[in-house]
Amino acid sequence: MLLKKLYLLCLFTLSYTYGLTPEANAQILNIERARVNRDTANYLTGRLGVDFSMFNRNAGKNNPNNYLQLTFTGDLAYISTNHSYLLLNYYNYLLVNYDSRELRNTVASTGYSHLRTNLFRKRKLSYELFAQAQTDQARGLELRTLLGGGIRVAVLRSNDVNLYFGTGLMHEHEAWKNPELDQVLEVSDLLKSTNYFSAKVKLSEQISTDAIAYYQVGHDDTIDKFRNRISGDVTFNFKLNSKFSFRTNFNCVYEDEPIVPVTKFVYAISNGVQVNF
Length: 277
Hints:
It is a single chain. By secondary structure, the chain is mainly beta. It has a 12-stranded antiparallel beta barrel with strand order 1-2-3-4-5-6-7-8-9-10-11-12. The chain has one helix at residues 2-20; strands at residues 43-58, 64-79, 84-96, 105-119, 125-136, 141-157, 161-178, 184-202, 207-220, 225-239, 244-255, 265-276.
């Protein structure tokens, strides 16, 4: 009975959160969320999450704005004896006035697909290769692609706490719409240093958390400056049963020299139900 009440409370919280404010996901990738710490090998695992909401807000006494929002997350991992392979996916779509052809407008279309390989995963010092494609049209990011690799150091590994540090190099391609130049497309290609520190902690049998902080930097000759990006993601997972869990997430990004004049600091807080398989 208690589990049933908790489940209904989680669903209510999910609906309430999305009903109050459309999600403005900051597009931070938490690679630890899909990693698995099992001793067995040669297996496939994954998780799937879908959030859907419809709500309205007044734009006048008899002229409400009607919103439709869909969020999809899907992670897949294959673990071999020596290596691991991750495919991480996220997509968020927000449509305003979906019931009117004349007033219909897509406010947000954001998402990413990330492929990562961890070679010799059991060693204290292992190697990573990754590729990513990303879009965030709400902020003007038409396309961001990443291709790179580096090393991964196991700082601490135990049943309840796992800490890792990673560093490497990547090529980053970005195409942004400039809001001050009549939507002119600004393109950047940079070689960057990419670094992260991650933690995965089991607080109890029902509660766990995973977090990651990134620091990426590269020199842009067109402005003769370094472009710095700091980002972070923290997720709390509350296990409801063997298949379902409730998830609360906070993420943020800060860029000191964005390609186009956009908000330097963005963040998002979200709640959702997750299916594990």
